[in-house]
Amino acid sequence: DAKTTQPPSMDCAEGRAANLPCNHSTISGNEYVYWYRQIHSQGPQYIIHGLKNNETNEMASLIITEDRKSSTLILPHATLRDTAVYYCIVRVRGTTDSWGKLQFGAGTQVVVTP
Amino acid sequence: DGGITQSPKYLFRKEGQNVTLSCEQNLNHDAMYWYRQDPGQGLRLIYYSQIVNDFQKGDIAEGYSVSREKKESFPLTVTSAQKNPTAFYLCASSGQPRGRSYNEQFFGPGTRLTVL
């Protein structure tokens, strides 16, 4: 599985957009980009995933560059409850024929301030 | 409402004792996982199971054991052979229904184990 590189921490003002970068320069053609977040002392929570097209759901947007070597998770209007560690993971999409094992790095600690 | 439960939330044990952490899911998921998390670090995979009566070692299986006798249950035993057992332990499951892929894992609230 491709490794990812994320900044260790970033701050964001409440109500502003938070843009979380992730580099995955060795990503393979069949690997997806997944984002999870972990609020302190809780289990991680799935946010979004994508292959090459931009994706949006009720939580966030995912922008993947054309060469797929990097991506950005966007939280459009950050709230205090978005303070968490955000993990960027690249993985072959799990199906019944393959494994859903995820490799979690250290992630980015996002602090949303009032 | 379906989900994953882990009990207890906090667990204290004396050094040299085995301890079993509970994980139960009612999501009807095929796959289940155990992770360990140390302070300031990401999660590391201990064991995983794709189907009942089958499980595989993850990246840090030494000193741990598991069983998968029922689809909804995947208990983890931390044995006395585990050198540094104090950590936050997370259980997860994935599959259909609900999951959009097997990489969409649903996590339990975790058990914080402290060995004295």
Explain what the structure shows.
The complex is a heterodimer of chains A (114) and B (116). With 114 residues, chain A is mostly beta strands. In chain A, 0% of the residues lie in helices and 46% in strands. Chain A contains no helices and 9 strands. Chain A has strands at 9-13, 18-23, 31-38, 45-50, 55-56, 61-64, 70-75, 84-92, 108-113. In chain A, the strands form 2 sheets. Chain A has a 5-stranded mixed beta sheet, with no helix packed on it. A 4-stranded antiparallel beta sheet of chain A has the order 2-7-6-5, with no helix packed on it. By secondary structure, chain B is an all-beta fold. In chain B, 0% of the residues lie in helices and 45% in strands. The interface between A and B is medium-sized, with 26 and 31 residues.
Rg on CA atoms of chain B, Å: 13 Å
Q: What is the strand tally of chain A?
A: 9
Characterize the biggest β-sheet of chain A: 5 strands, mixed
N-to-C CA distance of chain B: 36 Å
Oligomer: heterodimer
The unreliable regions of chain B are none
Helix count, DSSP H or I runs of 4 or more residues of chain B: 0
Give the gist of this structure.
Chain A is an all-beta fold.
Provide the fold topology.
The complex is a heterodimer of chains A (114) and B (116).
Chain A: E1 9-13, E2 18-23, E3 31-38, E4 45-50, E5 55-56, E6 61-64, E7 70-75, E8 84-92, E9 108-113
Parallel strand pairs in A: 1-9
Antiparallel strand pairs in A: 2-7, 3-4, 3-8, 5-6, 6-7, 8-9
Chain B: E1 4-7, E2 10-13, E3 19-25, E4 31-37, E5 43-49, E6 56-57, E7 64-66, E8 76-78, E9 87-94, E10 106-107, E11 111-115
Parallel strand pairs in B: 2-11
Antiparallel strand pairs in B: 1-3, 3-8, 4-5, 4-9, 5-6, 7-8, 9-10, 9-11
Output the keywords:
heterodimer, A: 114 residues, mainly beta, five-stranded mixed sheet, four-stranded antiparallel sheet, 9 strands, 0% helix, B: 116 residues, seven-stranded mixed sheet, 11 strands
